[in-house]
Design goal:
The complex is a heterodimer of chains A (about 250) and B (about 425).
Chain A (H helix, E strand, L loop, with lengths): L6 E10 L2 E11 L4 E5 L6 H8 L7 E6 L2 E3 L4 H6 L2 E4 L11 H5 L14 H15 L15 H14 L4 E5 L7 H16 L3 E5 L3 H7 L2 E6 L2 E7 L5 H10 L3 H4 L1
Helix pairs in contact in A: 4-5
Chain B lengths: L5 H4 L7 H10 L3 H20 L7 H26 L7 H23 L9 H25 L5 H20 L9 H4 L9 H29 L7 H23 L5 H10 L16 H19 L1 H11 L1 H6 L4 H27 L10 H11 L11 H21 L3 H26 L3
Helix pairs in contact in B: 3-17, 4-12, 4-15, 4-16, 4-17, 5-6, 5-7, 5-15, 6-7, 6-15, 9-10, 12-13, 16-17, 17-18
Classes of the chains: A alpha/beta (about 250), B mainly alpha (about 425).
């Protein structure tokens, strides 16, 4: 491929104490592409992705964004590269309502520099109407919301600010069937708009449906990256479990 | 109650439809009403027990000036507790700020800058030095907490000993006074606005409050949000106007004793006209508290700093992942707390007309209790400025009421301590019932 990748993470390593959480992993992501990260708990998927979103700093390795070397030392840096993350924990302040969470760290201000709560509330109403028409509790603290509604808030936060690169860590883990479908539709819509999406999930079937490529990790190492049309679900499962590439396992 | 703005609009889980619709129409915070109710109950009970001496203009005047010092610090303690920290050093820090300001006025400025005692610059330079001292010490404790990750409990427990004795060291343990006469005006009885200016302040405050209500309504209409019915809006406005003007009327009906007026006239070399009377009116210290309360409320509700304080209290990880510098935020919160300690030190030392070595002793407990009784949750993320001030007022009412009734000193503290625990229990039950916070 001659196109420039949106994200190119090269030889990333990070250790916590004596544990090598991510060991010399390289992955990339192209515009309009969904790349899935698969692996057991503790395989290093979330850690790898947190390096991209600025929550952790890699011990070694480089991150290239759209062909340029990037320095990401904090979540703020990541946002500057239009990288938005939907964390597994959703990272919502439960005591604040949806608009405050959506704009957290990027509040809309009035001309005097004060928070423009009315405008933030109006904008939230607008984007929620698009993402989740059932969403009504704009003024309630998000602790009063259902799992799906909380997820909508977290997604709205990522989508509102025109992300180029979207990281979704277990976006459907806490959701019902209907809401899972909604997230899947949204992923397809965003992909069509040219966003690059890293998707983390345990659900291999779902990943085969949503992703263009999947990367499998085990014990901090990258086992391999495959195009979904080239492999079967069983191939992927054996990569996850055995830690071997499809052709080796066959 | 959760964040300042939102809980008011949250529909609470009551079942009685009629009651609920009235409450909803007024959009009053039930929690605030409960506290006002508790305060009124305390006031009425003591008024009966003291044969009507509790609710006299004179006692209400005294109550307000006694509450100011703790109330000012309690507003800062709200931010500290909301961000899941605690500050045990506020009483000691008040003492250090008070010592610095007293030494500035009586020794350092006259000696090193050759400003004669009574020079008009002295009180202001002293106050500036005090606020800088409080802010810097607060920021330092915030840095130890935020950047070096020493628990705030330990940092400020150490601070309690350090700053209490830094004050002692600065003054050699002596009582420093009398303080500058302009400075003393912030203490309460020695600095009141008189009848005319008190009414001016009251009317301006009323108009400002009504204008704010009106602006909020217009803003909501502009964004097509639901607004409460006009009658409810007007009723709320009437209650606010009545409360402000009522307080001014009460304070204005507290007459300056004739002997004191006589002395003032004599001091100016004039003779007092026959039948001359004057009222104390609004104390400057109370005006100062009102200004602090407004500024702190604006910070809490209308600025990014306030939003980050509440977000960090609600979920520190989420705040950090949103790009908020929570470490620097901790420094800012403790710096604000320190500066408020200095402002309280002005009021406290001015009220005593001197700096004494034990000034502010046990204030940390009163301040924390005021914030907690006022609904600040120790788990973080929840609290209001007005709640903390009401909490301080309730505490002070209990204390002075019992003193007036003649309850023994040890029994007074036993009651106050029990009330603190009981208030938190009621709050926990209330939150569980309504599902708020």
């Amino acid at each position: 491929m001659t196109r420039t990748p949106l994200v190119d993470m090269r030889n990333i390593s990070i250790a916590f104490g004596g544990v090598q959480a991510v060991d010399d992993v390289s992955i990339d992501l192209y515009p309009g592409e969904v790349v899935g990260l698969l692996g057991h708990n503790g395989a290093g998927k979330s850690t790898l992705i947190k390096i991209l979103s600025g929550a952790y700093k890699a011990d070694s390795g480089e991150i290239w964004i759209e062909g340029e070397k990037a320095t990401i030392n904090s979540p703020r840096d990541a946002r500057a590269y239009n990288i938005e993350t939907i964390h597994q924990t959703l990272a919502l302040a439960d005591n604040l309502p949806a608009p405050a969470n959506l704009f957290l760290g990027r509040e809309l201000r009035t001309m005097f520099g004060f928070l423009d709560d009315s405008r933030m509330e109006a904008e939230t109403t607008k984007i929620m109407a698009r993402l989740n028409p059932n969403f009504k509790k704009i003024a309630d603290p998000v602790s009063a919301l259902s799992g799906g509604q909380r997820q909508s808030v977290a997604i709205a936060r990522a989508v509102y600010f025109n992300a180029r690169i979207l990281i979704m860590d277990e976006p459907t883990a806490a959701l019902g069937v209907h809401e899972t479908k909604m997230v899947a539709d949204l992923i397809m819509e965003l992909k069509a708009q040219g966003l690059g999406i890293f998707l983390i999930s345990h659900d291999t079937r779902e990943m085969m449906d949503l992703c263009d490529r999947v990367s499998v990790m085990k014990n901090g190492q990258l086992i391999g990256t495959e195009r979904v049309e080239d492999v079967t679900e069983d191939d992927i499962l054996s990569m996850i479990i055995m830690g071997k590439k499809a052709e080796q396992a066959a | 109650m959760s964040t300042p703005d939102t809980a008011n609009r949250t529909s609470s889980g009551g079942q009685k439809a009629n009651k609920k619709s009235l409450m909803d129409a007024l959009e009053l915070d039930t929690r605030l009403l409960g506290m006002i109710g508790a305060f009124i109950l305390v006031a009425i009970v003591f008024n009966v027990l003291t044969d009507g001496r509790f609710l006299t203009p004179r006692n209400i005047f005294n109550l307000t000036i006694q509450t100011v010092s703790v109330a000012i610090m309690a507003t800062g303690m709200v931010f500290v507790i909301v961000t899941r920290h605690i500050d045990l050093s506020v009483g000691a820090l008040l003492a250090t700020c008070s010592a610095v300001m007293a030494m500035m006025q009586t020794a350092w400025l006259p000696q090193f800058l050759d400003l004669p005692l009574g020079h008009p610059l002295i009180p202001w330079l002293a106050i500036a030095a005090g606020i800088i001292t409080g802010g810097v010490i607060g920021a330092f404790q915030g840095w130890l907490t935020g950047y070096l990750l020493i628990p705030a409990f330990i940092v400020t427990l150490g601070g309690l000993l350090v700053w209490r004795n830094a004050a002692w060291y600065l003054t050699n343990g002596q009582t420093i006074g009398p303080l500058d006469s302009t400075f003393q005006m912030f203490g309460g009885i020695n600095g009141t606005m008189g009848e005319f200016w008190s009414w001016v302040v009251g009317i301006v405050a009323t108009l400002a409050a009504l204008a704010a209500l009106w602006a909020k309504r217009r803003d909501k209409l502009r964004h097509e949000f639901p607004v409460k019915p006009l009658w409810a809006e007007m009723a709320l406005g009437a209650i606010i106007a009545g409360a402000i003007l009522g307080l001014i009327a009460v304070l204005n009906s507290y007459q300056v004793p004739a002997a004191r007026l006589q002395r003032e006239f004599t001091a100016r070399g004039e003779t007092m006209p026959e039948g001359y009377t004057a009222a104390y009116g609004l104390p400057l210290s109370v005006l100062l508290l009102i200004v602090v309360a407004i500024v702190m409320t604006v910070i809490a509700r209308r600025t990014a700093l306030g939003r980050y304080i509440f977000a960090t209290g609600g979920n520190p990880q989420a705040a950090e992942l949103s790009g908020i510098n929570t470490r620097l935020l901790t420094v800012k919160v403790f710096a604000i707390m320190g500066a408020l300690c200095a402002i309280s030190a002005v009021v406290a030392s001015a009220r005593l007309t001197n700096h004494s070595n034990d000034i502010g002793t046990l204030d940390e407990l009163r301040v924390i209790a005021a914030a907690v009784i006022g609904g600040t949750a120790l788990a973080g993320g929840i609290g209001t400025i007005y709640g903390a001030i009401l909490g301080a007022l309730i505490m002070q009412s209990l204390q002075s009421g019992m003193a007036m009734v003649g309850v023994d000193a040890p029994l007074q503290n036993i009651v106050v301590g029990s009330v603190l625990v009981l208030a938190v229990l009621i709050d926990i039950i209330y939150r569980r019932r309504t599902g708020k916070g």
